[in-house]
Give the backbone structure.
Amino acid sequence: MKKIVIIAALICGAWQQADAQYVSKVWVSDQKDGTYINPIIHADYSDPDVCAVGDDFYMTASSFGCAPGLPILHSKDLVNWRLANYA
């Protein structure tokens, strides 16, 4: 039993050390100079629908029955999107 605990501790310690060295790089399409890189949104938003309300743009996409439902994204420039809520 003691050997199993020691082995588990060694494995977990190595995993935590490797995890501490990992740096997440979030995709950013906006180049901050008036240009952008495709894809605009580096995610799986299938069948997107976009509508404009004044100076704001809203997008939803198919969720194929996955909870929590239809994602609602918001943008001011059609390049920088943020998740606003779910419908």
